UniProtKB/TrEMBL annotation:
Pfam families: Thioredoxin (PF00085). Belongs to the protein disulfide isomerase family. InterPro entries: PDI, Thioredoxin-like_sf, Thioredoxin_domain. This is Thioredoxin domain-containing protein.
């Protein structure tokens, strides 16, 4: 009886330890965590090919930068909120960690962190210089996505009619 009770206690303890470990793992990537691997990221090996088609808003950041850490929840919120634009407007979000991709950030002449640039069909189109809050960025993204959708429709029509 004592042996059975001890076994049950040990099993219970093992379950609590396992639950604690899984909870700790789940907390590792809380909302707005700058190191969240679920947010799309680019490297030097996929940068050019990824940005070559469509419109992309790209954040260049350092995980050690206090401004980047403060901005991380806004970026994640915006990317998740506007995820539907990938299908409806061919407009996507991604980012580049300039600590792990230092050569790439050097090639792109990134002036500081966080820096946000808009790419259109592989060409750097403009730098976002507005406020770094959700509402300001949302207005910017929606305006640029609408412009891109209109441009893409005109381009497709011109190609289909041979103009």
């Amino acid at each position: 009886m004592l042996r059975r009770t001890l076994s049950l206690l040990l099993l219970g303890l093992a379950c609590l330890v396992a639950l604690g470990a899984s909870t700790a793992e789940a907390k590792k990537w809380e909302f707005g965590d700058i190191n969240n691997p679920n947010l799309a990221s680019l490297t030097s090996s996929n940068f050019t090919s990824t940005l070559s088609k469509g419109m992309w808003l790209v954040e260049f950041y350092s995980p050690y930068c206090k401004h980047c850490k403060k901005f991380a929840p806004v970026w994640q919120d915006l990317a998740e909120y506007e995820e539907h634009l990938a299908d409806s407007h061919d407009f996507r979000f991604t980012r580049v960690n300039c600590i792990t991709q230092g050569d790439l950030c050097g090639e792109q002449q990134i002036p500081g962190f966080p820096s946000i640039f808009l790419w259109a069909d592989g060409v750097r189109f403009e730098e976002y210089e507005g406020e770094r809050d959700f509402d300001a960025m949302l207005a910017y993204v929606e305006a640029r996505a609408a412009d891109w959708r209109s441009y893409s429709a005109q381009k497709a029509e011109a190609l289909s009619t041979g103009r």
